[in-house]
Design goal:
Layout (H helix, E strand, L loop, with lengths): L12 H21 L5 H17 L5 H13 L2 H19 L2 H12 L2 H19 L2 H18 L4 H18 L4 H10 L3 H28 L8 H14 L8 H11 L4 H15 L7 H10 L8 H6 L9 H19 L2 H10 L5 H18 L3 H18 L4 H13 L9 H10 L3 H4 L4 H16 L13 H30 L1
Length: 498
Amino acid sequence: MSKVPREKKEATLGISLIPIIVIVGVLAYAILVMGADPHIPILIGAAVGSLLAVYKLGYTWEEVEKGIIDSIGSVMQAILILAVIGMLIGTWIGGGIVPTLIYYGLQILSPTFFLITALLLCSIVAIATGSSWTTAGTVGVALIGIAQGLGISPALAAGCIVSGAYFGDKMSPLSDTTNLAPAMAGAKLFDHIKHMFYTTGLSYGITAVIFIIIGLQYRGKAIDAGEINGILTAIESIYYINPLFLLVPVITIAAVAMKVPAIPGLLIGVVLGAFCMLFQGGDFGGTIDAIHYGVEAASGHEMVDELLTNGGLDSMMWTISLIMCALTFGGVLEVTGMMATIANKMLQFAKNTGSLVLVTVLSCLFVNVLCADQYLGIALPGKMFKDIYAERGLAPRNLSRALEDSGTVTSALVPWNTCGATMAEFLGVGTFAYAPFAFFNILSPIVSVLYAYTGFSIMTMDEDPSSPEYTHKMKLKKSKQELEEYIANYEAKARLAD
C-alpha cells in the first residue's frame, strides 16, 4: 500500500516563536551563567523546532532532515574556505611570513596613524580578494600583533580590521555576498555596487574620521622601545626574517584578485607558506603538523608566543562545528516556514518606503542572530521581500543594497554567527569585545534606514535603466518625441505650402 502523505499545517506565529524563545533562553544561560560554548544550546533549539515540525505541523523527519542538509550544503564552499584559511595561517606562521609582517610593521607604523592605515590596508585587500575572511585571516592577524606591540588595544584594532575587511568585501565584485544580494533581489551586480556607494561611502567616511580622531589620542605617546625591541628579539630568536617572504601574501592576494577561484587561490598561499618553512629549518613532518595542527611558538616572550601559536586545519574545527550547528537550526526554521511566518508578521509594520527598508534591515539582523549565518541573512529576507519591493514600484537595487547594508555587515557582530565566530577566531579577540569598535558595521544599517526615510538615493522602477518599466517609459518618450517632431514638420510644410 502506498503511504498517504501527511497534511502539513502552516506555522503560526506562536509556534514559530517557540524554538526562538528556547534557543535565546538556553544560549543566555549557557553562555552567561555556565560560560559554555553555544553549540549544544543551538542544537537544543533545532531539536525543539524539529519536534514541533513533526508533531504539530505534519512534516516528516525526512523533510526536516533534507532542510538541514540543504542549509548546510548552501555554505559548504565557505566551510571549505575556512578550513583552507586555517591551513594557510599555519604555514604562514611556520614559514615566517606573519612574523615578518609583524617584525617590519612594528618598525614602520606609528601609534598615531596605525588605525587609519590598518583600515585602508584591510579595505584594499578585501576589495582585491572579495573576502573579509581572507583579509582578517592574513593581514588582520599581522595587524593585531603590530597593535599589541604599539600598545594599542587588541579590541580596538580588531574593530578597525573588521570595519575595513567588511567594507572591501561589500564593495568587491569578487565577493560572494556582493553577488548573492543582487541575485536575491533581481538586480544587476554593478548596478548594485554603484547604488551602495551612497550608503557605504557615508558610513566609511564617518568610520575613517572616527579612527583618525582616536589615533590622535596616541600622538606623542612614547613607544616603549624596550618592549618593541623585546618583541623583535623574541621573533628573531625563533624565525629567520627576510623581506622576500612578503611576496607570499602579495602573490596570494594577486591570484584571488585575478579571479583564480578562492579555494585554489588560497591553496597557492598554503603551498608557498610550506615552501617558506624550509628556510625555517622545517621538514616534511613539521610542515604537515603546521598544516594540520598549527604552530606553537616557544620564544619565551609571553605575548609573542600567544600571538604566534595559531593556525592549522584543527584550529578551525570549533568554528566549523558552530557553523554546522547554526545552519541546522536555520534549516529547520526555513524548511518549516517558521522564519517566513515571523518575517511576514513584521511586514505589517512596513507602511512606507522608510519602514519597509527598516523591516528589511531588522529581518536581516534577526536572521543573523537566530540562524547565525550571513548567507541566510541575505537569502531569506531577499526571497521574502522581493515581490513587496516590486509591488511598491521600487527598483531591485534598493532591496539588494538594504540586504548588504544589514545582512553582510551585522553578521560579524554576532558571536555565534559564522562570521562573528570566524573573526574572533582569526583575530584572537572576542566578538563582543571588538563589536563596539566596528564602527562601519554599526553605521551601515543605520545610514541605510535614514536614507530610506528621507528618500535620498531611493530609486523607483521608472528611474531604473535596468527595469522593463524604464525601458517601456523610454520607448513611450521616444515615440512621443518622434510624433511631436512629425507634427512640427508637417505644420512647417503646411505653412510653406500656404
